[in-house]
Design brief:
Chain lengths: 475, 475
């Protein structure tokens, strides 16, 4: 039995990112995954959902056509099954490409089987035992389905099965309105499925800022009914495929889309053989800045660790895990500022600290506010709705975070992420140019609003005085 | 005759911005404008064009409907005259509001007449002579129409008259393909007008980067024919309202949209009475960082000065002019990094230094490239086209500028403007999070491409090592 330098368990986005780092150091590695290859993101996650959302929003826009001078919108129709066929075609391109990338990257070092950890330096796969200097665990996570719900069989859909449906059910209860439930629920509703949304929590898309949340609920609620704050209960009768009850009210559905979060793919993985304590989710403690589990040569990256279950974070964790696994080290890396986006309409996004986090820590901060129902560009495009809140430290004027439910949130959030990553103050942020008319001007308004509320009222002018000008052409 | 502290000539965006600063210092001022009030931007510029472009792009999107599972696109039709009616309605809201703002801001100090400068401390308006401690000139600019073209009368349209047309001509030659010609030409073509575009220069939307320009020409050229690099000649015959010749080829049109730039509104303004030298455009020299003309108590702001004829720059110049006019000073302010956006499809934008400027100054720079025909999010939305080039200093890795013709350029450009304003390096820019799948990932690819080409190949990892982490929550 030859000893490997590294074994990567899982060929998803996190595992592939680790693989890239490990390949820089050694060819003596194995990647183990039972398939299907192609990454969750490309197969059933970020990619197909965006194609679906675009089609849904294109169709939804017809409501504005008459006002814009476009006739015939009433003749438009959409066929949910055709949309899904389109989405699958799009998806197959991306997932097929990712599978090719995976096979090319891993080459002969790919074992298509399930892996089991036997010890911190020993893995079993395909009936073989592999001794290894390090292990990267990147098995991902899967949609959570409460075990009592399993009796409903294929009437329970998830993000992993919805895109495979040849016939989209006519009436769907979406249970869980985080990023996945909200994106899929709204899109399904816009392509003509009857959708009702439920979430035990009184929130939508993870928002914690009450005012922003309220506006998001209003806007999304105009697409499809949503019920928040109480658990949905499922049952089945002869007359109805699946009954969903909420409080005293029950209604009949063709299917339920379960979107209540994910559980880590650790069944049969043998984490118990690592010899470290496991928490109530069955996971070991790990350091998000080293990806290391305890002081073992074992690293954990991507959705499986439950820390930041978002693709770009999985890539970062894979990078850290791969670098450390290859070198047998525990080098410590900064994590990027948090950036979360829900591709709903209005889009929901959060950057840096959430409002709840700031309030919990008792930090003194001001809130800069911009109501997008008055935002010029949004109004020009008849898409004016939502609210942007940015948070700034009342002492230092530093930008701390933001929550928003606005059109174009994905773009505003990226600009804000640059500011957060570079620890900029609201005054520094206001020195940038803002074109006209753009959605970003709404961000400027929120920044100005925050600046006006800061303790130190001696606000700095947006234009710097000469002497410290950035080099740039003039006329 | 009482002496005023300040007289503002022109109640457009630049003048109103100056007014806000002057009102902070004194109530003893006058604002003079012959009307119509409401600002060029809101009446005939940025605002109506964006409403038109949105309607045009909504209609254009129908070509993708069938593929997305939406039926009936062939039943859609658009009526250019209805679109313009919609645009006027939208425009009236914004312009009406701006007129109200103007009247409220200026109050009784508004004189609705044409102003003439008699001396650096004397203005005439409405038959009255006004002595003043300072003058702000903010009269704006108007579309340039070569005098021989005046014989064609109302067959020559401009951005100031096109939105007023009750009947949009069936076939229009757009002459000049800078920001205005390109935006209006493409939108008119998409709402069903037959459009042919011409520009004497071999460029589009002001691009100077040959590769980006080429891709822009390809993309826009698929909407309507464009002829670059030779002057268009106009004539009129009995059989044809207006004939446009280009090289050996002539064709008949219903109207010409003249979009060859603007000329400053200085006729009868009395600039010759300032006692300073005027250049061949009839304008005095001025300092863009103080807005001051020579050492006179006279300041010039906005499109009239020809420096940076863009709304947000006019506001900055108004701020500088107003502050200095009120205080009788020449305080020097930094100008923001240049940011130019054309709302075409693909959008065209430039930030910081243009490529031509960098080449002219002999600066050593690398080009980071991203082809958006392969960009994931753009492909998911069937809008994958165009090219992004970013320029970085080969010694310092500092981001210097960018030119692009890509979907969502307006957003990418704002993120880049933050980087330019803060003199960030490409490595610092890569430390920010990029979500997936977003257009901004195309920017990241271009940044990585630039980083890989830098002289100092010791590239910094995107994740900082611990010790210098920005404060932010972890899991």
């Amino acid at each position: 039995m030859t000893e490997k330098d590294a074994v990567i368990i899982g060929a998803g986005s996190g595992g592939l990112s680790a693989l890239r780092q490990i390949k820089n150091a050694t060819d003596n590695y194995l990647m183990i995954d039972p398939g299907p290859l192609g990454t969750k993101c490309a197969r059933v996650g970020c990619m197909p959902s965006k194609a679906l959302i675009k089609a849904a929003n294109d169709f939804h826009r017809r409501h504005k056509f008459q006002s814009e001078g476009i006739s015939g919108a009433e003749s438009l129709s959409i066929d949910p099954d055709s949309v899904m066929e389109y989405v699958r075609g799009m998806r197959d391109k991306f997932a097929g490409n990712m599978e090719k990338v995976t096979r090319k990257l891993a080459g002969d070092n790919l074992i298509e089987a399930k892996a089991k950890i036997l010890a911190p330096d020993m893995v079993e796969a395909g009936g073989e035992r592999i001794k290894t200097k390090s292990i990267v665990i990147a098995t991902g996570a899967s949609p959570l389905i409460p075990s009592p719900w399993r009796e409903f069989g294929d009437r329970i859909l998830t993000s992993e099965t919805i895109f495979e449906q040849k016939h989209i059910p006519k009436k769907i209860a979406v249970i869980g309105l985080g990023v996945i439930g909200l994106e899929l629920g709204q899109a399904l509703s816009r392509i003509g499925t009857e959708v009702v949304g439920f979430d035990m929590k009184e929130t939508l898309g993870g928002l914690t800022d009450e005012s922003v949340k309220k506006r998001a609920i209003e806007a999304v609620g105009s697409d499809f009914p949503i019920h928040l704050g109480e658990a949905a209960r499922l049952s089945s009768t002869k007359d109805c495929k699946i009954t969903v009850c909420y409080g005293d009210h029950c209604d009949c559905y063709d299917a339920v889309l379960a979107a209540m979060g994910v559980s880590p793919n650790i069944e049969g993985l043998g984490l118990e053989n690592l010899g470290v304590e496991l928490n109530d989710r069955g996971l070991p403690n790990f350091n998000p800045k080293t990806a290391q589990i305890s002081d073992l040569p074992v690293y954990i990256a991507g959705d499986v660790n439950g820390c930041r279950p978002i693709l770009h974070e999985a890539l970062d964790e894979g990078f850290i895990a791969g670098k450390n696994a290859a070198a047998g080290q525990d080098d410590c890396f900064c994590r990027r500022v948090p950036l979360r986006i829900v591709f709903s309409d209005p889009q929901i996004a959060a950057v840096g600290y959430m409002r709840e986090e700031l309030e919990t820590t008792g930090r003194e901060f001001v809130v800069g506010r911009e109501d997008f129902s008055d935002q010029a560009r949004a109004a020009l495009e008849q898409n004016n709705k939502g609210l942007l809140h940015i948070y700034a430290d009342n002492q230092t004027a530093r930008f701390l975070g933001a929550e928003m439910a606005i059109p174009g949130a994905e773009h505003i959030a990226h600009q804000l992420a640059v500011a957060a990553q570079n620890q900029m103050t609201v005054f520094e942020m206001l020195q940038s140019p803002f074109y006209h008319p753009v959605l970003e001007e709404g961000l400027r308004s929120a920044l100005r609003n925050a600046a006006s509320k800061l303790k130190d009222k001696h606000t700095q002018p947006e234009l710097l005085v000469c002497g410290s000008c950035p080099e740039s052409p003039l006329c």
